Amino acid sequence: MKRVIVTGARGFVGKALMNQLIKDGYQVFPVSFTNFLQETPHSLPEADICIHLAARVHVMNDSHPNPIEEYRRINFDGTKLLAEFAHRAGVKRFIYMSTVKAVAESSLCNKPLTVSTTPAPTDPYAISKLESENYLLDFAKTSGMEVVVIRPPLVYGNGVKANFLSLIRAAQKRIPMPFLGIKNLRSLVSLHNLVSFISCTITHPSAANQVFFVSDGEDVSIADLYKKISIAFGILPRVFFVPVFVLRGLALVIGKEAAVDRLCESLQVDISKNKTILGWVPPYSLEEGLSEMVKS
User: Fold this and answer.
1) Is there a contact between 216 and 188 (Cβ–Cβ < 8 Å)?
2) What is the pLDDT of residues 98-146, one digit of tens each?
3) Which of 7, 75, 246, 272 is a plausible cystine mate for 33, CB 3.0–4.6 Å?
4) Distance between CA 105 and CA 8 in Å, rounded?
C-alpha cells in the first residue's frame, strides 16, 4: 500500500482526488499546507508520493500591498520548503499541480499550447507557479526525487465556482447569451478526467520529471459550451449573435474589458504527449463531464 501526502485535500480538486485515492487502496495523509508553513520545525509523515494541490490562487482585485511577493511566499517559497521536507520524508515522486497560466493566458485559435511553448506568464499567480515548476524540475536533478508537473486549464465539475458557475446559473435560468459571434476555442478538463490523469502519473514510470498539459481532449467555443451546459440540464439552448466589437465596446463602457477578453480569447492545450508517453486518454467526454456535473 503506497502512502500518499495530499495538500489542498479540502479543495475542489482535493476532495475528489482523496476519494479516488482511498478507493484505489492508497493510505492517504491530508496535510494542511497553511499549518505546514506555520510549523517550526516543519514535519511530514513518511510517504512514497506527495501531491501538492494547495496554492494561493488567482485573486480578483487583490488588495495585498505587494501581490507578487505574497504569491511567491506561498506558491514558490512554500512549495520549495514542502519539496525539501517531502524528500526528507522519503517521498519518491512529487506531483505538482501548476496551471496553464504558467505558459499563457491565451492562444491563437487552432494553435494549441504545447509543452515546448515558451512560457510567458502575465500575472503574479502565474509567475509564481512557473517559478515553482522550474525549481522543482531542478530539485529533481539534484535530489533524485522524481517530479511531475501538471498544467490544467479551467477545471469544471461539482463545486466549480467563479465564471463557470455563472454560466451554469445563467443556463439554469434560461438566460439568452450573445455568444454566437465569438469564434474562439478553449480547452477544459472535467474533475473526473483530472483525477484520472493524476492517478496515472502516480504510478507510471514514464511520468517522472515530465511536464504535462491535461484536458478533455476536445476544445469548444463559448457559444457551444453554453449550449452543451443547457442541454446537460435538459434545457433548450439560447444564444444569439452580437458582433464582438459591440461586446468589447459595451465592456469598455461598464469596465468589464478583462471579463469580455476572457470570453472571446482562445486557450487550447495539446495533450498528445499524454497518450504517447503514458497511454492516457480522457475517460470522460466533455458531454459526459457536464452531465456528471449537473447530476451531482
Assistant:
1) yes
2) 999 999 999 999 999 999 999 999 999 999 999 999 999 999 999 999 9
3) 7
4) 24
More confident residue, 262 or 44: 44
Identify which of 239, 224, 203, 215 has the alpha carbon closest to the alpha carbon of residue 95. Answer: 203
Q: HSE of 158 in the Cβ direction (CA atoms, 13 Å)? A: 12
C-alpha span between 41 and 78 (Å, rounded):
14
Q: Which residues, including other chains, have CB under 8 Å from residue 50's CB and lie 6 or more apart? A: 4, 5, 6, 7, 44, 82, 83, 86, 89, 91, 93, 94, 95
Q: Which three cell numbers stand for residue 2?
A: 503506497
Cell of residue 88, nine digits: 526528507
Q: What is the DSSP letter of 73?
A: I
Tell me the domain boundaries of the chain. 3-159+190-216+268-284
Active site positions, annotated: 125
**Closest by Cα among 53, 90, 104 to 75:** 53
Long-range contacts of 24-28 (CB under 8 A, 24+ apart): 24/199, 25/1, 26/1, 26/2, 27/1, 27/2, 27/3, 28/4
C-alpha cell at 261: 477578453
pLDDT tens per residue, range 164-202: 999 999 999 999 999 999 999 999 999 999 999 999 999
Q: Residue 214: left if φ>0, alpha if ψ -120 to 50, beta else—which one?
A: beta
Q: What is the pLDDT of residue 231?
A: 96
Strand partners, 51: 6, 95
pLDDT at site 295: 84
H or E, element range at 260: helix 257-264
Angstrom distance (rounded) from CA 89 to CA 70: 27
Residue 59 grid coordinates: 485573486
CATH T-level fold of 3-159+190-216+268-284 = Rossmann fold (3.40.50)
